[in-house]
Write a structure and sequence with these properties.
This protein has 326 residues and is an all-alpha fold. Helices cover 83% and strands 2% of the residues.
Length: 326
Amino acid sequence: MTSVQLIIGLVLLLGGGEALVKGSVAVARRLGVSPLLIGLTLVGFGTSTPELVASLRAAQIGAPGIAIGNVVGSNIANILLILGLAAVIFPLATTKEAFRRDGAVLIGVSMLMLTVVLFGVIGRGAGLAFLGLLAAYTIYTYRTERRTHDAATRVHEAEAEDAMPRRELPLWAGLLLSVGGIAAVVFGADLLVGAAIEIARAAGLSEAVIGLTLVAFGTSLPELVTCAMAAVRRHPDVAFGNILGSNIFNILGIAGLTAAVSPLPVPPEIAAFDVWIMIAAAFLLVVFAVTGWRVERWEGGAFLAAYAGYLLVQLAPVVRAWLGLA
């Protein structure tokens, strides 16, 4: 029963996330919203809706390990798994102007997350500060790109174009798709979090480990689809933009809003190990991106190998049990 609940939750998260993004983009276009603003907000942050709902739900039922693990684990998976897979499909050239700003912001907010995590709790004050920083970053980015219309602007416009439904939808259809997507994400997140807790208990794993692995992977499925399709369509800047925007939003938006609603005690294992892996992945992304301003296939393979190693460390107790070594 738990496995069926898990599968249904994952399907609803993937389908609901896709429907929400496409429906909201269609509505925004009908209302005359610029492609720049659509790419910057609805697409860049919209694919992180499953992470947001799952973390809020986990905090609501008293599972802070899943809530924080979901944020940290999603950021790790976005870089090592999703961007790595996209680079293996097609080497990813990035835009200097866009990456110099957003890459620096990613490093900055990752270090901010590290600092807060090391205090042992993400309180309401920190959560509200995160949300304020997210609003400031979004407003600054929009105003700057609207004025200059540089390469970064074109990245966000391309994100909006890639997220548009194949056929132009009437306003009512876009609204219906958006509402249906929200409902699917909320229900799917509830199923996923519930199944994850049961699996953690049955496997003898902590809620933090399940949040860092299973929940993080499940809620990152929309980013996986978006980046894989961008790589197939030869839109590497869209893949980069989606991952950078998602990771920034995961920290400032998801951790911020969740902590503002309910302060989050940090599991010791996340402070001791996982948040450092998140920092290392962010710096490795910067190193790979600025050396030649592209991520080659072998670098994507290195990302994937690193993620496999990370999962092996996290799931070592289960692996030992399967091998009869426990």
